[in-house]
Amino acid sequence: MPMRILIVDDTTTARIFAKKCLTNIGLHDAEFMQAVHGIDALEKIRETPPDLILTDLMMPEMDGETFLKTLKEDPDLQHIPVLVVSSAGNMARRDALLAMGALDVLPKPFSTTEIYDVLKSFVQAEEDDDGWGE
């Protein structure tokens, strides 16, 4: 079963960029889902829970911080890893986001190398599922 990844960002370009980076680091067989804000993301997660979430912070309706807090307070969803991507101005909140349960916080825009360093365990698991490296 392919890994399911939810990308949450109100900007189409940012979602496309994130998907391209994730594909480039080896998650090309993943099933990508997209949401434009936290409320949209929560609805999609309840329909089809992802294996990994990548979320922006600055979004309308429900921002990324509220989304992360809501997700981590739900016993059925709190196990899902959440990678937060944020503009440089929000990086000061990194420790608070990590304390709330974020897997990590990356600056926006992030590089393929930065996202690989954080997600290499997911990439390796995906490669093992594909039978690579045997």
How many beta-strand runs?
5
Residue share in β-strands: 15-25%
CATH topology: Rossmann fold
How would the global form be characterised? globular
Distance between the termini: 19 Å
How many domains is the backbone divided into? Answer: 1
Structure overview:
With 134 residues, the chain is α/β, with parallel strands linked by helices. It has one domain: Rossmann fold (3-Layer(aba) Sandwich). The chain has five helices and five strands; from the N terminus they run βαβαβαβαβα. It has helices spanning 12-24, 38-47, 64-73, 94-99, 112-130, and strands at residues 4-8, 31-35, 52-56, 82-86, 104-107. It has a five-stranded parallel β-sheet, with helices on both faces. Helix 3 (64-73) links the parallel strand 3 and strand 4. Helix 2 runs parallel beside helix 3 (64-73). 31% of the residues are buried.
Brief account:
With 134 residues, the chain is α/β, with parallel strands linked by helices. It has helices spanning 12-24, 38-47, 64-73, 94-99, 112-130, and strands at residues 4-8, 31-35, 52-56, 82-86, 104-107. Helices cover 43% and strands 18% of the residues.
